[in-house]
Write a structure and sequence with these properties.
Two copies of one chain form a homodimer. Chain A has 342 residues and is of the alpha/beta class. Chain A contains twelve helices and twelve strands. In chain A, the strands form two sheets. A six-stranded parallel beta sheet of chain A has the order 2-1-3-4-5-11, sandwiched between helices. Chain A has a six-stranded mixed beta sheet with strand order 7-6-8-9-10-12, sandwiched between helices. The longest helix of chain A is centred in the C-terminal third of the chain and has 17 residues. Chain A binds a DNA duplex (16 and 16 nucleotides) through helix 2 and helix 4.
Chain lengths: 342, 342
DNA sequence: GTGAAAGCGCTAACAA
DNA sequence: TTGTTAGCGCTTTCAC
């Protein structure tokens, strides 16, 4: 394979020569070390900028065994929640002069592992990712190696790491409580995969609300799905076909809400008169439907920013213990449950 | 700033020692060079894998002046079109053992330039991006430096580079023609920023369709916007407030369609009876509205894949001239123009 | 406060 | 076919 070779950029050597100092001094000037004479520093920086010099990050990374790149791994780039998190992460990282290396795994453990190993080989300073139970052991290995990491959105038991999640249980609770408050007592839920912590927690919230209201759980109303559109579509159809269909459905993520809406439309079920609906997550399209969809909103941006900040802190000082942040959720009431006709 | 130092991973030296060969042989075995004895290669690879060796990409990149990372810069990560392209790019890149470094610029030239310069300092093998007129000179500089690149979605005049775009004019033409065919003759368009080629082309398609139909252009019906939600919202309101409002609106991207729908909902304008609508780009939510939105669909996935393939080719052989690919668009007819009641 | 020199892990001449 | 050796551009001891 013939590789193209780029015309070489300006190096530290040339800057040193032009400024009549050693490369060490140039390096120090750029690192902002205070052991270098302020005047000299100005001079060096001036020469460097006039030469259009930009330190080679690859060389720096090799020598110093650190880099300004962090790895980011998300399960789904088409999920508003994750792109929101990416934005939050990126804004913090950018401000700190870090770059991110982004991959998405489609929640496929093999792909994820692959990516993780590549990221490590790339010498990233740390990683932010959404853990998958199947790779638990690999995470531990990376952790033992001292790779700084922060997990977002999910947690897996037995893996002690800095984590930023969402108040999922609270969200599930609020959604269900809201429906109960409107008089619904046949409330179904379409859950995510139960090996994922946030899916379990959202379900827990639902259960707690029902229990507090003294409403017995109907197993059939708890439809297990996988956070994807198609299974939610199917689950909705099943619910509709039941002899005693629910009067309300709580769909536990954005993409599945699409599937449920699709099924409802297909069967011409009116919202909210024939079916009330609460979603989870709040992409822009939720409010332009008629009626707008009532949702549990979680601050993906802030979650991402928080995760990035945690990671940056981890890069600076050796870790002691691990921290867990939980972002609050919020119920955005629109017309899909019959309160407001919008 | 105290940087954390990772416990060093296995290096080529240790593999060489364990396999009782030189580092060069290990390197060659990994590079798949056929000058190495097949048996020896097997042996080396075996030892390496038993040691859990993974070549350090940073060192490789520094030494060989090439890398397996490519940079990707998009204007908006919340735009379905770009995330689709990212997926397409990533799948091709992954298969070729490349990683991508993703940034998004918010279409801010300064941020874009910043990113570009970081990517270069990171030693990426090439870049895929969506060019912005304001950075024209910088692109030329990068090109002169020999950095392989491919542009997607837009083109800027005077910048000769491999490009993959969409048949925007055709799309605009089809959309307008479709509306004309249904008897509409007061058709408005909400355009993107005219300094962006695809926005100009979509408008051209609209114009051509009107012209062919012998319908004179009404300047007020051509609302200039910026591809963002808010301006589309405003533009829609303006159109509605006009003494002779249009009977149909062609909104030229996904995000603006959201803005238009929002405005229409706010004013309680019925689709399609009081206003017909055609959008551009086809995220999942377009079809779950009632009625579903008729759109011009463009294959963002394939566009991305094509771009990635072009780039990979550029990495292999020195370039001669430049190539331009144009992906076909397709009209997806739903109920928003009054043909099908869905 | 500054410079000289070693070396990060790898690849690529050049030798053998 | 394989090994030896130099060096990619930078940071970082260790001298001065």
């Amino acid at each position: 394979m013939v590789m193209q070779r780029r015309s070489s950029a300006i190096t530290i050597k040339e800057v040193a020569a032009a400024a009549k100092v050693s490369t060490a001094t140039v390096s120090r000037a750029f690192a902002g070390m205070d052991c270098v004479n302020p005047q000299l520093r100005q001079h060096v920086l001036g020469v460097a900028s006039s030469l259009n010099y930009q330190p080679n990050r690859v060389a720096r990374s090799l020598r110093s065994r650190t880099s300004n790149t962090i790895g980011l791994l998300i399960p789904d780039i088409d999920n508003h929640f994750f792109t929101g998190a990416v934005r939050g992460i990126e804004s913090v990282l950018n401000a700190a002069d870090y770059t991110m290396l982004l991959g998405h795994s489609n929640d496929d453990p093999k792909r994820e592992r692959n990516y993780l190993s590549t990221l490590r080989a790339e010498g990233v300073a740390g990683i932010i990712f959404c853990p998958n139970k199947a790779n638990h052991n690999y995470y531990l290995e990376l952790q033992r190696d001292g790779l700084p990491m922060v997990c977002i959105a999910r947690e897996i038991s037995g893996f002690e790491v800095d984590t930023v999640t969402v108040a999922n249980k609270q969200g599930g609770y609020m959604a269900t409580k809201h429906l109960l408050g409107l008089g619904h007592n046949r409330i179904a839920i379409i859950t995510g995969p139960q090996e994922v912590s946030n899916a379990r927690e959202r379900l827990e919230g639902y259960r707690q609300a029902l229990q507090e209201a003294g409403i017995p759980e109907i197993p059939f109303y708890i439809q297990q799905a996988d956070y994807r559109q198609q299974q939610a579509h199917l689950a909705t159809l099943k619910l509709l076909d039941h002899p005693a269909p629910p009067t309300a459905i709580f769909v536990t993520n954005e993409v599945m809400t699409l599937g449920t809406l699709e099924a409802l439309k297909e069967r011409q079920v009116k919202i909210p008169s024939e079916m009330a609906l609460v979603g989870f997550d709040d992409p822009a399209w939720m409010k332009i439907l008629s009626p707008g969809i009532t949702v549990v909103k979680h601050p993906s941006n802030r979650l991402g920013a928080q995760a990035a900040e945690l990671l940056l802190q981890n890069l600076k000082k050796p870790k002691t213990g691990f921290r867990q942040f939980v972002m609050e959720t919020e119920l955005i009431i629109r017309g899909s449950c019959g309160v407001i006709s919008s």
